[in-house]
Design brief:
The complex is a heterodimer. By secondary structure, chain A is of the alpha+beta class. Chain A has one domain (3-122): Cupredoxins -  blue copper proteins (Immunoglobulin-like, Sandwich). Chain A has one helix and nine strands, in the order H-E-E-E-E-E-E-E-E-E. Chain A has one helix at 3-20, and strands at 27-28, 41-46, 51-52, 55-59, 63-68, 77-78, 94-99, 103-108, 116-122. Chain A is globular and about 35 Å long. The termini of chain A are far apart. In chain A, 35% of the residues are buried. Chain B has helices at 18-28, 37-52, 82-94, 115-125, 148-154, 194-205, 235-240, 294-297; strands at residues 62-67, 102-105, 133-135, 166-170, 173-177, 213-217, 248-252, 259-263, 266-270, 302-308, 315-321. Chain B is of the alpha/beta class. The longest helix of chain B has 16 residues, at 37-52. Chain B has a single domain, classed as Purple Acid Phosphatase, chain A, domain 2. The radius of gyration of chain B is 18 Å and the shape is globular. Chain B has a six-stranded mixed sheet with strand order 4-5-6-7-9-8, with helices on one face. Chain B has a five-stranded mixed sheet with strand order 3-2-1-10-11. Helix content of chain B is 25%, strand content 18%. Chain B contains eight helices and eleven strands. In chain B, helix 3 (82-94) runs parallel beside helix 4 (115-125). The chains are: A alpha+beta, B alpha/beta. At the A-B interface, helix 1 and strand 8 of A face loops of B.
């Protein structure tokens, strides 16, 4: 479990960040903001039990869409519960959220927790 | 009955006859590591019990079957008829000359936790002549509701603790059903959690060391291949509570292939699926349904028979495929 060490550190840092931002959740599955440049599509493909790309940097207001290309169901769940989790995505199913407040957010597949990813939201 | 792959005549004390052994060896060619368990387990546990000067446990003969990973609802290329192959597995059980006392289902009844998938499973299971079934959930059974529906359907009649773990005794053998597919942590593996570990410690506290123990859970309770998530992060702690027992058999599913390891008095065994095989650890970019030629599929699906004979500490674990 040595791989957890560095991850645990980043999770701890994220805990601190999220604590400071608790009152204004940074990512929201329902949030719509037509004034922001939110039409750019950022796609994360779920393939071979991995999020590709594993880390993505986007602008606030942009959308992110995950699409599952595996024959296994996967989920997208914020480690710190900062955005609404997806339901289990079957093959070719998609899940989209819109980025809000800048920050760094980790997420994972709650079915296969080895699968993790990071979203960096910039202004 | 000649086309069935379970043992009909067993004259050896090791729990497996020559004919059955040869059949087992025949499927070793599929790339699955196969180890005949009876002899190995017997010699180890008996030797250690003799050394400790303990008496053999008082128990009567008992046999039960493990079925696993039915994945009802799956319809991709690896097996377009998982309901059909599940039905075949039940047909095999119904055709057994000596029916098992009960079944254990070690999880992933469904592919997507859908009520209609559970309905199909329940409907098909009605054709099985063995009505006593004990369940533990797989991650596919608890996808969207934290296991609520699963518990209502399959654990209601059991006095399950926490997220659904429980124990019971039959014929002097103590059975423990554990849940290691809920509240999983980012970056981690299967997990039992503090509450369940405390319960387990308490559950076995009063048992004598001669009591045969059978533990069943979905994800392997040993580090089969952590890179693919095939292991349970806190299983070592659970096994600490069980080390003092002379005979511990751990039955898991999840990986859809037979693997076995013996560690002291503990034998770990994983079962085949009734739905589709998965690659051997590390032999593919990732785990997941493995497509094999149609004519080969049923040789990689199966069920597991476990037999306990009075006066021994041997639990013979024998796998049969669906050819």
């Amino acid at each position: 479990m040595t791989t957890l060490t560095s991850r645990s550190k980043s999770v701890a840092i994220l805990c601190a960040i999220s604590f400071l931002n608790l009152s204004r959740l940074a990512l929201n599955g329902e949030m719509k903001d037509p004034d922001n440049p939110g039409n750019k599509q950022n796609r994360i493909e779920i393939k071979d039990f991995a999020f590709n790309p594993q880390a993505i940097t986007i602008k606030a207001g942009e959308k992110i869409t995950w699409i599952n290309r595996d024959e296994e169901p996967h989920t997208v769940v914020s480690v710190e519960k900062q955005f609404k989790k997806s339901t289990a995505l079957d093959t070719d199913q998609e899940f989209t959220i819109t980025a809000g407040v800048p920050g760094t957010y980790t997420y994972f597949c709650s079915v296969h927790p080895k699968m993790t990813g990071t979203i960096v939201v910039e202004k | 009955m000649n086309d069935h792959n379970y043992i009909q005549n067993n004259h050896d004390p090791d729990g497996i006859d020559r004919r059955g052994f040869l059949k087992c060896m025949a499927w070793a060619g599929t790339g699955v590591l196969w180890t005949v368990s009876g002899g190995v387990l017997a010699s180890k546990t008996l030797a250690q019990i003799a050394k400790a000067g303990s008496s053999l446990p008082k128990a009567t003969d008992l046999s039960f079957l493990q079925i696993s990973d039915s994945h009802i609802g799956f319809s991709k290329d690896a097996n377009k008829d998982v309901t059909g192959t599940f039905r075949i597995a039940l047909d095999r059980i119904n055709a057994m000359p000596t029916p098992p006392s009960f079944l254990i289902h070690t999880g992933d009844i469904t592919q997507l936790s859908k009520p209609e998938e559970f309905d199909t499973f329940d409907e098909v299971l009605k054709s099985c002549r063995i009505k006593d079934v004990f369940y533990v959930p797989g991650e596919h059974d608890v996808l969207n509701d934290g296991g609520k529906l699963y518990r209502e359907r399959y654990l209601k009649h059991i006095e399950g603790k926490g997220s659904g773990w429980y124990s019971f005794s039959k014929n002097g053998v103590h059975f423990i059903g554990l849940v290691n597919v809920l509240d999983l942590q980012a970056g981690g593996l299967g997990q039992l959690g503090e509450e369940q570990l405390e319960w387990l410690q308490d559950d076995v506290k009063g048992l004598s060391a001669e009591t045969p123990i059978v533990v069943f859970a979905h994800i392997p309770l040993w580090a089969v291949y952590p890179q693919w998530g095939w292991g349970t992060s806190d299983s070592e702690r659970a096994l600490e509570f069980l080390k003092r027992f002379g005979s511990v058999t751990v039955l898991n599913g999840h990986i859809h292939q037979v693997l076995q390891k013996v560690e002291g008095n503990i034998t770990f065994h994983t079962a085949m699926s009734t739905a589709f095989p998965q690659p051997a650890p590390g032999t593919a970019p990732s785990p997941g349904p493995m497509k094999v030629p149609v004519e080969k599929l049923r040789s990689m699906l199966g069920l597991t028979s476990v037999q306990y004979k009075q006066g021994t500490t041997v639990l013979a674990v024998v796998d049969s495929n669906l050819t």
